[in-house]
# Entry
Amino acid sequence: MNQLPDLAAIEAMDEADPLRSMRDRFSLPDGVVYLDGNSLGPASPSVFGELEKAAREEWGEGLIGSWNSAGWFELPIELGDRIGRLTGAAPGQTVVGDTTSINIYKALHAAMGLRPGRSVIVAEGGSFPTDLYMAEGVVSTRPGTRLLLEGVDAPTIEELIDDRVAVVLVNHVNYKSGELRDMAALTRRAHEAGALVVWDLCHSAGALAVDLDGANVDFAVGCTYKYLNGGPGSPAFIYVAKRHQAEARQPLSGWWGHARPFAFEPRFDADTGIRKFQCGTQPILSLRALKAAFDVWDAVDMALVREKSLALTDLFIRLAETRCGSFGLVLESPREGAKRGSQVSFAHNHAYEIVQALIARGVIGDFRAPATMRFGFTPLYLRYLDVWRAVEALEEVLRTQAWKDERFAARAAVT
Ligand SMILES: Cc1ncc(COP(=O)(O)O)c(C=O)c1O
# Structure
């Protein structure tokens, strides 16, 4: 294994970083090492100006005319196509709107409708919980349908896929461990059994290059407030492969999915393209923030993002294990870069308190129950120096047992 870099070597790595200048395009408080962009991405300063413009000019002056003149009505489609550039989706297959949870519901229903006679949804026991909750919701409305889980009904998801399965709902990168699934292989496996796939891209869109069309994916969903930096609660997206759009039916048949929304017809007649996956009026100010965030993304080369992400996460693992390994940290993320998303998770019995002590020192990661410390590495604005500083703080918190301070045990509503 290569020798561990010292501070001078770390600074040289930052000097040589081709993404170095991107950091200036984000608003980050001085002294903060932000390792939570996998939960809530930071703002670009340009977003503040665009939000002001959207509120003062488009809403304040343009009033209702802005649905047309400021392009509000088309924003979900326009932004969907811009997300498609990062997720390997040709235009016309991605639309922004609603939440990831709601889009999971739409996608699962649509997929089940495309596989009549099949009664099983397969998902991961270790999935982000909302995926499972939404799948339970779908099952509750379709008598005779069952949800089978990896880790509960069989050790691996592949073992659950057979000719009873209508749809496989799976996370590209696991929210807790950061494990990256092989999208092409698992999609192929599902298709061989006649099933469809719904991929949750919440932790991969903007974190690594995704190839939805190339992997022949059927449906995908994801959020925009993490790696895509769209802002708190910014709307999610849904991808539906062109080949399914005419036939697929989504259950939330609201007027924005109608073929002629402004004809105000009494009966629902779905649009034949991706617009049918819309439901109702969208939060335009939030979409305007996302649009401004995309001014950063449009010029970004995802191959460089992935390369730096792997370098940052590798460095963090090596430094943390070398300097803090004796304090009871257990790596929960895959050691092999090819199997890892853009985060590193460590288990520790006092994970919650340690994360709070780190936050008090300006190193912001997060905690996931029961015992995971999660650190997200976002290559556009993080430096190798930030990795170094994070490990310095972690080592100090563990060595001095600073986490034992009782103020770090108090649990807030959001962790
Ligand atoms: C993998 C994954 N799926 C879904 C969600 C939830 O999405 P939403 O709150 O937009 O419904 C999250 C949120 O963190 C997530 O990490």
User: Anything to note?
Assistant: The longest helix spans residues 302-324. The chain has 13 helices and 13 strands. Residues 49-297 form a domain with the Aspartate Aminotransferase; domain 2 fold (CATH 3.40.640.10).
